[in-house]
């Protein structure tokens, strides 16, 4: 797709002509030379920070991207946005800021690119919310742009990763692991830079963004440290200059069919439930119609193929070693499960990109063939019922079974639930209910990795279910249901539950119910009073005032009636 386009459409407004001499003077002070003012200006949005190993190396990668931009005839301008660490803040009040950071990243990238008049940009991300935040900014701005994933971490000792540590805490509480054993796992699980090593949220979203067409082929499946990732960054810098000259923009790429491709790849990889939330949000900012029911529709025909952690056996670095996700995408395309005509940032279609991609070699056991899937349909199951009139998202791999019925154990917030689990108060047959953790009520929709890991560590993973109006880390596994909407803070049915109520979850019928008469639910609703807000000022209060339902991606803008037809 080639357009008659001005490669300096935005930057010339900022730096051309006598009246813009003050702007040029300011830019000379940060390194611009006379010749640079005639080049397309390309922002490089870095999420570098030493607050997490996921992003500790991003500064170096951003400089590589700048080198690629400059070598291709553009003028790179490096800037930073924020990141927070889900893994470090997990189970603490700080985790309330995690989903908030997605909005802040999108807003800040949009703000800098818009204010500076960049003609295009490269965005680099590592930790979970970096990926959707950057992609949302790309969709909003609709300027030529490419996303680069910072890459996965290498395995720790004995193939350990961060989930090994979380589950070790549960095993230690159950008396199955000594103090010395817990300390050894803590010291040896995280060997260096890179995003958490299973098919958790970071690797899931990187793969989804590659499948959307916003990254160069192969970008999502590389280790954080090494020449492959450095080369990926340089090539992205070069490619975005070409996109600026050709006029290829994100909304040429982000169509309904490209989102269907991303959903199919996430399912085949056994990816995180967070992909549902984030893809809905990216689609919203791209003006593309996407709903929870699209995940059901695509999930009926798409199998789970990759045997990856947390539910499977293998780490992302082991998938990288056999070729990453390009061979998997080729399998899906050959099986009629991808739309090959969708455009990508290469300027070529998905089918053209995959034409010369090799298939997996025989003998590998990480990715199963279409004829022998791990699960014949999606592990991401959208549930409805009198507990979730607007929907909920379950992660059902089949290993947990497909139905669960038990008595509710209701907790107001994650901390009380985790303490009860670690203290042995939760037993087989319980349905742990954690509420007040939704987008508005939390606020911030915290991830329930600490309680799910405590359940697994205590050996209750196949005996207990957990439901919440919060969400789950990509590292969570077991019989878990999140994103329950409406949330408790808005008077949703989850806010009306009492300990001892019977709850039935049926993944086959796609239903989640509390066994109570409608009249009893009406009486409880009439007596319901909203909880006192957690935050009365600052970013959390602002977020709580603006955020919408998880069933629409928890975006902080009204759902617009305007929609594209693509």
Index terms:
8-stranded mixed β-sheet; alpha/beta
Strand content: 5-15%
Oligomer: single chain
Q: Calculate Rg over CA atoms.
A: 23 Å
Q: What characteristic shape results from the CA principal axes?
A: globular
Mind describing the biggest β-sheet?
A: 8 strands, mixed
Can you count the helices? 21
Q: Terminal Cα separation, in Å? A: 16 Å
In spatial order, strands of the major sheet run: 5-6-10-9-8-7-11-12
How much helix, percentage-wise, in residues?
25-40%
**Residue runs with pLDDT of under 50 for 5 or more positions:** none
What structural category characterises the helix and strand content? alpha/beta
Q: pLDDT average, as an integer?
A: 95
Number of strands: 12
Question: What does the model show?
Answer:
- The structure is a single chain.
- This protein has 566 residues and is α/β, with parallel strands linked by helices.
- It is 38% helix and 13% strand.
- It has 21 helices and twelve strands.
- The chain has an eight-stranded mixed beta sheet with strand order 5-6-10-9-8-7-11-12.
- Strand 1 (41-46), helix 3 and strand 2 (75-80) form a beta-alpha-beta unit.
- The longest helix has 21 residues, at 96-116.
- The radius of gyration is 23 Å and the shape is globular.
- The mean pLDDT is 95.
């Amino acid at each position: 797709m080639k357009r008659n386009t001005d490669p300096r459409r935005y930057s010339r407004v900022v730096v051309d002509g006598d009246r813009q001499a003050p702007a040029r003077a300011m830019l000379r002070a940060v390194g611009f030379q006379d010749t640079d003012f005639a080049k397309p200006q390309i922002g490089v949005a870095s999420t570098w920070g030493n607050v997490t190993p996921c992003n500790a190396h991003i500064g170096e990668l951003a400089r590589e991207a700048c080198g690629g931009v400059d070598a291709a005839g553009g003028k790179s301008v490096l800037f930073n946005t924020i990141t927070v660490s889900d893994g470090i803040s997990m189970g603490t009040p700080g985790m309330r800021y995690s989903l908030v950071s997605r909005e802040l990243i999108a807003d800040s990238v949009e703000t800098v690119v818009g204010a500076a008049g960049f003609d295009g940009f490269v965005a680099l991300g590592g930790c979970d919310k970096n990926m959707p935040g950057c992609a949302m900014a790309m969709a909003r701005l609709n300027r030529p742009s490419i996303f680069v994933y910072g890459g996965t971490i290498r395995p720790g000792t004995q193939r350990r990763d961060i989930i090994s540590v979380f589950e070790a805490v549960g095993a230690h509480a159950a008396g199955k692991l000594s103090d010395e054993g817990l300390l050894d796992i803590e010291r040896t699980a995280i060997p260096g830079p890179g995003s958490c090593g299973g098919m958790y949220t970071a690797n899931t979203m990187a793969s989804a963004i590659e499948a959307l067409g916003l990254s160069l082929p192969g970008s999502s499946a590389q280790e954080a440290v090494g020449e492959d990732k450095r080369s990926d960054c340089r090539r992205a810098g070069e490619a975005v200059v070409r996109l600026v000259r050709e006029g290829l923009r994100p909304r040429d790429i982000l169509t309904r069919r490209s989102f269907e491709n991303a959903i199919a790849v996430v399912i085949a990889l056994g990816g995180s439930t967070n992909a549902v939330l984030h893809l809905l949000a990216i689609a919203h900012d791209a003006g593309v119609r996407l709903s929870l029911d699209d995940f059901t529709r695509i999930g009926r025909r798409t199998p789970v193929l990759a045997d990856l952690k947390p539910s499977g056996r293998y780490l992302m670095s082991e998938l990288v070693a056999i070729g990453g996700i390009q061979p998997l995408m080729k399998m899906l395309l050959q099986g009629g499960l991808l739309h090959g005509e969708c455009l990508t940032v290469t300027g070529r279609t998905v089918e053209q990109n995959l034409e010369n991609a090799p298939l997996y070699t025989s003998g590998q056991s990480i990715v199963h063939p279409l004829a022998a899937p791990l699960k014949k349909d999606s592990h991401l199951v959208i549930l409805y019922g009198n507990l979730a009139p607007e929907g909920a998202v379950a992660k059902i791999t089949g290993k947990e079974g497909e139905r669960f019925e038990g008595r509710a154990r209701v907790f107001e917030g994650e901390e009380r639930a985790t303490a009860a689990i670690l203290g042995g108060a939760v037993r087989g047959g319980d349905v742990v209910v954690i509420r007040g953790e939704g987008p508005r009520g939390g606020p911030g929709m915290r991830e329930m990795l600490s309680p799910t890991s405590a359940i697994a560590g205590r050996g209750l993973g196949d005996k207990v279910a957990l439901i919440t109006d919060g969400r789950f880390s990509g590292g969570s596994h077991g019989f878990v249901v999140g994103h329950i909407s409406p949330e408790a803070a808005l008077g949703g049915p989850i806010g009306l539950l009492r300990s001892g109520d019977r709850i039935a979850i049926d993944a086959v019928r796609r239903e989640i119910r509390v066994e109570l008469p409608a009249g009893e639910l009406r009486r409880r609703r009439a007596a319901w009073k909203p909880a006192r807000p957690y935050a009365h000022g600052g970013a959390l209060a602002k977020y709580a005032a603006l955020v919408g339902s998880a069933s629409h991606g928890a975006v902080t803008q009204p759902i617009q009636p305007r929609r594209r037809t693509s």
